[in-house]
Amino acid sequence: MNKSISPATQEQAARARREHLLLQISMDRRLPSLGIAISEVVKITSGGAESVNQLAKFILSDIGLTKDVLNLANSVSYRNSQGISVTTISKAIFILGFDVVKSSALGMLMLECFSAKYQSLYFELTRSLCASIIARECVNRSKHQDAEEASVASLFKNIAQVLIAAQDPKLYEEIMLPVRQNSASLSESANRHIACSLPHFGSLILQQWNMPDSIVQAAGALPWGEIKKSRQRSEWIRLVAAFSSDAAEIVMKHTRFDSAGGTEINFENEKYTKELMHQYGAALELDAKILADWLNRAVQETGILIQKMGMRLIAPEPQVQPEQATLTLEDSQTTLAGIMMQSDCATGPAPTYPSGKPYNARDLLLAGVVEMTQTIASGKFQLNSLVLQLLEILHSSLGFQFVTASLKDARTEQYVARISLGKDWHKKQKNFCFPSRDAMDLFHLALKNNVDLMIGETGSEKIHRLRPDWHLAHFPDVKSLMILPLIVHGKPIGLIYAERDCEASEGVPPDETGLIKTMKNQLIAAMSR
């Protein structure tokens, strides 16, 4: 800014610029929906035993997000030892871990929201992801309840920089340039341009998004004075967010990302970590070896994530020692590979029949059988998660638009949909309810005779007569459907239902039918334990 302008006038202009930026952010139609989506994922974090199912459903509601998470799970670094493709979100969560998928999904939502892709935005999003990964290491050592919230708080520690880079790249550069030139601190530069610190600005945004108080507070700056060990959960989250943000800054400053992840840095060298250890070592009970391990893991995981998210990140110039200044041809090729990051797994949609059923349904079902077998063999599954996994497989492998698991409620004597996914699943799950008393319709006949029904065309007079009134009233557009009764110890306990709003004249050949029955029997065996 012009030095001839009085300080009062400068501050007034900076305040006006800040208010204009806040207004600009509030009027951006993309951001309210982003805030709602982020708040939903944050709530899922504290959802207890149902968190995995809720996160899977949330991801499945977004086709792009589903594709990105499956791409990540199928990357070389995460693929399971058998080398079998991951085809369901449930399995992706099992392979990657809940926290990895959650943080990745949040990052992907943020990237998807911004149509203008500036290098400054990519840099800040990458730093957010890196901070979240480092925070996860702190979470793994913590005894605090719901400690996972710290990784979310760390992801949004630099939300002010992310939004300024997205909304006003010129302003972002004006704030950052004096910092890079060592002519001003970040706090001084931000106050000069928007009349407040970036942590304060970020807190204002998170408040608008109705984020939990602990995350809003974590976006703010730590109080002045010696950093001490925190016993209260909210203070600990704030401490972890600050540490993770500073640690991510170190990673971003010294790392050149490439297609394999990131360059190997000797973070045990005190020149990289001395300041971090001085500030946070005692408070977080760190030693140099632990910190170096965390930073190196963050380099590798961050590199994988930005590659799979398709970000083009211009890497910083490495700090080269004088005796290493000569650049070889091999070095230059490596450098060029690291300059532009591109997704290596962009694929078009799989060819399908007019009904939406993929041509390679058999292969997808076979992969589903393998996935369910591995999940059950691990012994580390909840029954609801296994049900959701089967629904996912049927949804994606056979092109059904809505699938649900309906179980018998002994108290009300009704079959009620419990777990669902697909098109309009909230509304359809609410309406999928029918009495358990015997009747001459498709559902009761399937349950009574333990017969799997796969109906490609519901328009015939015979099938129409067997559809109950409740189904005709609430599901009038169904043109093809599937009913798989669940019979445990000779008694019907529920069924799996799937539907499309178009006919499926291609049918279900015997090999596909056999695979569907295998997965159903796997579920029943798990229910019988």
Provide an overview of this structure.
With 529 residues, the chain is α+β, with helices and mostly antiparallel strands. It folds into two domains: 20-339, Orthogonal Bundle (Hypothetical protein af1432), CATH 1.10.3210; 361-528, GAF domain (Beta-Lactamase). 58% of the residues lie in helices and 9% in strands. The strands form two sheets. The protein has a six-stranded antiparallel sheet with strand order 5-4-3-8-7-6, with helices on both faces. A hairpin with a 4-residue loop joins β3 and β4. α2 (30-45) runs antiparallel to α6 (98-113) and α8 (149-155) packs across α13. The longest helix is centred in the first third of the chain and has 23 residues, at 119-141. Residues 315-348 have low confidence and may be disordered.
- Low-pLDDT windows of residues: 315-348
What is the CATH topology descriptor of the largest domain? Hypothetical protein af1432
In the CATH classification, which architecture of the largest domain applies? Orthogonal Bundle
Bulk shape: elongated
Mean pLDDT: 82
CATH C-level label of the largest domain: Mainly Alpha
| Total DSSP E strands | 8
So what's the oligomer here? single chain
